Amino acid sequence: MSQSSLHEHLTCVAAPALWLSPPSGQLTGGADGLYVADRRVLSRLVVTLDGAEPAPVDATLVGADGARFTAALGDLTVERTRTVGRDGGTEEIRVRNTGTEPVTVAVAVEAAADLAEISDVKAWHAGEPGRTGDHGDGARAGAVSLRDGVAHTGPDGYAVLLTGRLRAEPTLAPGEEFTTTLTVRATPPPVEGFRPLAPDAPPPWSAAPLTVRSADRRLDALVGQGIADLGALLLADEGDLYCAAGSPWYLTLFGRDSLWTARLALPLGYELAAGTLRTLARHQGVRHDPETEEAPGKIPHELRPAHAAGWLPPVYYGTVDATPLFVTTLAEAWRWGMPAAEVEALLPAAERALDWLEGFGDAFVSYTGSPDRLVNQGWKDSTDGVQHADGRPATPPVALSEVQAYAYQAAVLGADLLDAFGRSGGDRRREWAAALAERFRARFWVDGYPAIALDGRGEPVDGPASNMGHLLGTGLLTPAEEDRVAPRLAELDSGWGLRTLGTASAGFDPLSYHLGSVWPHDTVIAVLGLVRAGHHDVAASLARGLIAAAPSFGHRLPELFGGQDAPAGHGSGAERSHRAGGNSGHSGPAGPADDGGPVGPVPYAAACRPQAWAAAVSPALVTALLGLDVDVPAGRLAVSPLPGFGPLSVSNVRVGAATVSIDVDPQGAASLIGVPPGLTLDL
Fold it and tell me: Which of 290, 297, 294, 286 is nearest to 324 (CA)?
């Protein structure tokens, strides 16, 4: 499958299942298919009328878990409504005679299953050496045709059952329809070790989901789609909820991604953060293992069942940032109302994480990486993702700037937790954090901004990059230093969001993975930090860029997109009104602008969509636009709306056990309903 076709695909998700479909709706090859628990249970699904495939007319996403495809052949139209469930999928096929004469037509559905591992599918179509087996037409070697009511069971016991009529020859009067409904259910065999499971209940926020009504319908739709996608990406471990990292390749637990997602999504409630933290704590490192990079106290990077692990170990610890993010997520969940008993139960895991950080002593928190696994182990984890302005790769060990900020914040907030729950060690953690900040101040600044990292020679990895946006609001920088960072972030504003790397760097490429592209989660983290630091103009511009980008992707923001400049009159600089307008829901490229150029950002062809932390941009934008600062233990709820986004009405922000609704008038004045007792309101 070409990278471009992945962008064009429509993805229906109900983790651990997903349906990946081209705009035609016909599953014919490449990565097309219905997947359940990392196995492809439908590799081919083709509808024909009298032996011919109808011509595609339209394709539309319906929520997070559905899609509708329309096609035509002569006077016959075919409408296919596709829905994915946690254990399979359903497709309703309607054939309608739109002509003026009766028609007899042979309706046929060809279905096949190859039970391929999703890691193999990804490898085949990335062209990895030695990965063969897909014939390019959905008829992979070993694929088995499915028949109504006849189960197909693979050698390892994985079973697939299709039910529904696959052949018919109806005679249709003018306006008459023929309908058949196909259902596919998968039963994975038992596996040892970690296994992503479907949750046994709806999302905790489903009874009263967060909604936004504003003068900009793009924002309303972006929030609605993102929250729907977060619910669709939910998985469970021992009853605890977490979000899978993203579709199609990463429907499993990633330490960094799942923690950032839970943290950004705190306006939906503390439950996702609590479940993510408990799940990761069960897999926290306890020993030193060079193969998996496990270490005592370390939070894992990625967990998969052994059969689906691909090229990394099934439980892999190659991440430098998940461990401090574990502590800060626990602290922020407590501030948003996570019950004290649940917080206290996780304090031993937080202490072990803090011990891992302190194990670096007077050195910076760094990683060495592995050429056989992950070379880079921050969020920019591509092999070329960390490089000097002249294009030289950073030599290990690498100490990333944002990781020092995460570590500082983890130590300070962790100390506050220890104090609040009567545990010792808080002062020691604060002293370590203060010393880290002083070392950072002395070593990281270059040409008026914090470097991306220090390399193994202690040399700053120069070139303005989005990493510095993660420093704001953590406490690592002084207010004066934050004032120096904000204008440098403004220089990275593409009009659609924050570029990962400045245009003057030798390695800059707006369609690279980490060297000039825009990642929505990266942008919103910077927005939150800028709001906390009081740099509202830069924050507002970046937020407007994300909102302006959303319609090009059916309001389902992707993992990343191109970092080219927004054309004049588009992106964050657009002045036109968006009080009205529809959305087709189609996930393909945007249409032309008035000048013939693209109206939206350039897609990154292989981007995952939905991606959990991109979906979490939606509730995070609510936090930023409202200027929300919640501290339930301290009895405080502050609201300071970002100028220029009113009027704005936000319903069902969850604070502890309460739901709060917030209205902002055109002048920026806020009023609240549902503030829980015991909280002092600060407007």
Answer: 297
In which element (H, E) is residue 476 found? none
Read off the pLDDT of each residue in 186-208 and give the average, rounded to a whole number: 93
DSSP structural state of residue 250 = B
Q: Strand runs (DSSP E) across 38-86, as ranges?
A: 39-42, 44-49, 55-62, 66-73, 76-85
**Angstrom distance (rounded) from CA 36 to CA 381:** 27
Closest CA to 108 of 189, 16, 44, 12: 44
549 contact partners, CB below 8 Å, separation of at least 6: 496, 497, 518, 520, 557, 561, 571, 600, 601
CB neighbour list of residue 104: distance below 8 Å, 6 or more residues apart: 169, 170, 171, 172
Closest CA to 413 of 359, 354, 341: 354
Measured between alpha carbons, how far is residue 536 from residues 126, 187, 352, 495, 529 in Å? 42, 51, 37, 16, 10
pLDDT digits (tens, 9 = 90+) for 32-90: 999 999 999 999 999 999 999 999 999 999 999 999 999 999 999 999 999 999 999 99
What digits encode the pLDDT tens for the residues 615-659? 999 999 999 999 999 999 999 999 999 999 989 999 999 999 999
670-673 and 658-664 beta bridge pairing: antiparallel
| 434 φ, ψ (degrees, to nearest 5) | -65, -40
d(CA 648, CA 275): 31
Distance CA 136, CA 661 (A): 52
Q: E strands, 339-410, where?
A: 399-400
**Residue 645 main-chain phi, psi, to 5 deg:** -115, 5
| CA nearest neighbour of 433 among 354, 370, 495 | 354
For 669, counting Cβ atoms within 10 Å of its Cβ (0-12 exposed, 13-18 middle, 19+ buried), the class is exposed
Distances (CA, A) of 602 to 238, 471, 505, 508, 610: 41, 28, 20, 16, 17
- What's the CA gap between 12 and 18, in Å, rounded? 6
Mean pLDDT value of segment 266-279: 98
First to last CA, the chain: 53
**Alpha-carbon span 198 to 235, nearest angstrom:** 5
Based on the number of CB atoms within 10 Å of its own CB, is 334 exposed (0-12), middle (13-18) or buried (19 or more)? Answer: buried
Q: Are 338 and 319 in contact (CB under 8 A)?
A: no
CA distances from residue 56 to 25, 29, 111, 612 in whole angstroms, order as listed? 8, 17, 19, 30
Q: Nearest Cα to 316, choosing from 349, 286, 287, 294?
A: 294
Alpha-carbon span 77 to 484, nearest angstrom: 60
The residue assigned the tokens 């960390």 is 386
* 142: phi then psi, degrees, rounded to nearest 5: 95, -5
Nearest to 41 by CA among 122, 204, 136, 151: 151
Structure confidence at residue 122 as a pLDDT band (50, 70, 90): confident
Predicted local confidence at residue 129, as pLDDT: 38
What span, in angstroms and rounded, lies between the C-alpha atoms of 158 and 526?
A: 44
What integer pLDDT is reported at residue 5 of this predicted model?
55
Instruction: Report d(CA 579, CA 13) in Å as an integer.
Output: 30
Q: Closest Cα partner for 270 from 291, 313, 315, 240?
A: 240
Cα(535)–Cα(312) distance, rounded to whole angstroms? 41
Task: Report pLDDT digits (tens) over 500-556.
Answer: 999 999 999 999 999 999 999 999 999 999 999 999 999 999 999 999 999 999 999
